[in-house]
Amino acid sequence: MRAIVAGAGIAGLVVARELVLAGWEVAVVEKSAGPRPDGYMMDFFGAGVEAAERIGLYPRLADAAYPVEAAEYVDTRGRRTCSIDYRTFTRLAGGKVLSLLRPDLELAALAALDDVPAGNVRLHYGAAVAKAWEDSDGVHITVQGPPERTLSADVLIGADGIHSEVRSWIFGPEEQYLRPMGMRAAAFIARDQDLNRRFRNRFVLTDTLNKMAGMYGIRSDEVAAFLVYRPPDNHNNPADNPDVQERLRQEFTGLGNTVDRLMQLCPKNPYDDLVAQIIMPGWHTSHCVLVGDACGAVSLLAGQGGSLAVAGAALLGETLRRADAPAQIAPAIADFERTWRPRILTAQEAGRRAARSFLPRNPAQRLARRWIIRATHVPGIDRYVGRQILARTAP
After folding, report:
1. Could you report the per-residue pLDDT of 76-92, keeping only the tens digit for each?
2. Would you say residue 170 has pLDDT above 90?
3. How far is CA 147 from CA 31, 53, 126, 142, 266, in A?
4. Does pTM top 0.90 for this prediction?
5. What is the dihedral angle through the alpha carbons of 277, 278, 279, 280, rounded to the nearest 10 degrees?
6. Number of neighbours of residue 150 by Cβ within 10 angstroms
7. Which H or E run contains 91?
């Protein structure tokens, strides 16, 4: 049988691999010219770890992971105000917590395609979906060129992210499903030996109001930057200042010498997008199904987007592998949604709760966050907090 996977991100590559291993012919189309270099550091645990172990992806992820000792909040003078001990969290998770850069997670999923029979998967970069439709013969997409061409298959899997083109063509315009959470997020990687040494093996986060800059020293002489901010007008619309570099510098300059240096290193066009969720009444039709952020973006505030991308894609692949004929595809993807939707809804609710306290609006809210974080060092409370986090992705 044949599948088209739109999106060569984490979810798309994982489900493509699972289907090819089952003997399917798979075409993967990706609008980017190649693997995307932008992205922030993420914690990978829970359902994602279980799925990665089950499908044989975990060793690649473990090789790409970074050691993390703590996440430290600092004031504008660089003085620590509170911290979270990662050793406790890792112990509560059974030793299976990986800290990964999003680009490294994608590259690991791409490298895992080496496990599949050559010729059964075709990967097309620079191929944006210009149109998608269904009929009695299956599902079809037009891919932008040059040359423009049409691909047909038994099933179309939309794994093309929060701004999914497949979702727009098959299910309706983005504004029907996009739920902004009042914030924007940006990320980039810059080279600086001094910052790299200072932030090696720990996350450093600014303990500031309405915005937060996060930093981590990665391999070579680079530092990964992660920025979250609440636009002054709370409309999440950058139209007033489309120059991303300048907008970020205006937002974050003045949070201390370290952040000022980071803003000097900010590239011209870093990743920058709104923080949002995708809320849909249904994810599938007879010949099309969405997976990952395309149907159930939980937002980065939920802290488990990468884990859920791998777990959801693995489950979709395993479910479709049980379909022995095209007529069995529709029941299979319906079964996938019935099984996976409750987990996504739970994670989205966790993300909405986190949004209420992620960026303190005033000194009182910031002080409350400090005391909650400090309390995690108290025996008993640390286990309670860890269980709450891990429960978000429990089977």
Report:
1. 999 999 988 887 767 76
2. yes
3. 14, 40, 11, 11, 35
4. yes
5. -170
6. 10
7. helix 86-92
